[in-house]
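Let us work through a complete example step by step.
Step 1: write down the sequence.
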Amino acid sequence: MALGTATPRYEPRFDAGRICLDLLATAHPVERLAAVEPLRAWLTGAAVVPPGTPLGHADACWLVPFRELRTHVGWLLRVPREADPGPYEHALARLNETARAAPPAPRAVRCEDGTLIRELTAPPQCAALLAVLARDALELLTDPVARAAVRECEGDNCPLVYLDTSRGRRRRWCSSEVCGNRERVARHRRRAALARA
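Step 2: predict the structure and record it as tokens.
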């Protein structure tokens, strides 16, 4: 990287259609759960916790369990059980075990302007937040309709997984603005090169 060139900043993405699939996106194109602050931002951005939930007690010990859960969910979605039953069964057992922890109960609280907002009755602990994600993954894996709508992005070098809720179930990319735009630009360049040739 040349001097004066800024390091690219990767914003979290929340367009996969399920929070467990958004968790998978935290590994691409770079590891986004390498520090506590990005994890805190992701938990709020993905609406795992209500906006404004204090997460100051989250520390570096939280990073490994979130990355491990991401690995298990990815394995269960991408690798058929028949291909390698041992790791698949291990991932499924870990997912079921993680889903057992109960998250703090939400409650409605009136703001000064009279509107209601959601907040948690207690500070969320790591195991409880992992359980929210694991339960979302279990619901996805056990719902045949939703499971059939899971797709892997067709973009070059993009391993992201998303829930295809488009009409006709013809969505090809994790994001039309990201991978879809890259494909359209590449197609335009190919046509332009053919026209020049």
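Step 3: interpret the result. Strands lie at 106-110, 116-120, 150-152, 161-163.
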